[in-house]
Specification:
177 residues, alpha/beta, 8-stranded mixed sheet, two-stranded antiparallel sheet, 6 helices, 10 strands, binds adenosine monophosphate
Amino acid sequence: MPFPDLDPVRAAIRDVPDFPQPGVMFKDITPVLSSPDLFRRVVDHFVARYRPLRLDALVIIDARGFILGAPVALELGVSAVPVRKRGKLPYRTVEVEYDLEYGRSALALHEDALRPGARVAILDDVLATGGTARAAVDLVRRLGADVVECAFLIELAFLGGRARLGDVPAHAPLVYT
Ligand code: AMP
């Protein structure tokens, strides 16, 4: 499967200044979601990248990671495994606290969501400081699964999130410097 041209996706992403707090330039992907052509390009990009890697599961991060990742997992024919903010998952969880670009939070994963040794990619919309993805990596590893790569639609490279991920590869087709 060829990799789609994502230039029109990049052009559609809307910058919203000072959301959710002063100083943050929010990357709004809703104009991408509202266009089936653009949304399809994003899904196809990740399907093309992960099809050859023979994943067992795609871990998708609350909340925009769910939107982008669920159709990717379905198309790959692998488990969609949600990582959510603490208190949202109903069954027994493993949890980790982490720093955000704006604030502090905790993420949770169902303790039976991944089998030991499972090959997993983690997907979210934006890599900012990397705190969220780092926390998701730690959760996945706690269950003994193997993180092949962290994937994002957008990387805010000036925030240095990639370094936070250490030895875990990060993939992002749209990089902002
Ligand atoms: P971080 O943990 O700093 O890498 O932040 C990543 C998480 O926060 C992702 O789930 C993003 O959806 C969200 N996020 C952080 N900064 C932004 C931004 N500038 N625009 C859109 N989403 C962001």
